[in-house]
What we know:
The chain is α+β, with helices and mostly antiparallel strands and 155 residues long. The chain is 19% helix and 34% strand. The radius of gyration is 15 Å and the shape is globular.
Amino acid sequence: xxxxxxxxxxTRVAALEHRGSTQRVNDSVAQFIAWRKESxxxxxxxxRSFGIxxxxxxxxxxxxxxxxxxxxxxxxxPSNPQGVVLKTIPGGRCARVRxxxxxxxxxxxxxxxxxxxxxxxxxxxxxxxxxxxxxxxxPETPENELVTDIYLxxx
Length: 155
């Protein structure tokens, strides 16, 4: 696993707050895609896509799981039927790992980051959850060719 220390720029995002089972995340993604198309505020072709993972799905009760589906924005997010709200991913130092492959196996890169790299690095976490930057997305990209950057916010 190759970990880079990078400076992430503060980024404003439109976020749909998924709450509940991971089995329903794709339903929330569909709602977010509908918002993106209807609002035009975060076009998928020209704005970055993110996910903010507040909880570990392996250790969190399904009903309590929290995950934000996000798209970069430069404008305010008006009230909307999908419930998309404006949030900020704070800037600062981060550990970044590039992951290649299906999102269903991304935990294989996350666990070693927390269990091995973090304790050995001497770094400390900042008070912001792990997040993902999706460099490409399905259906344009085959699932096995997906590329995702995983970020841990550091002090």
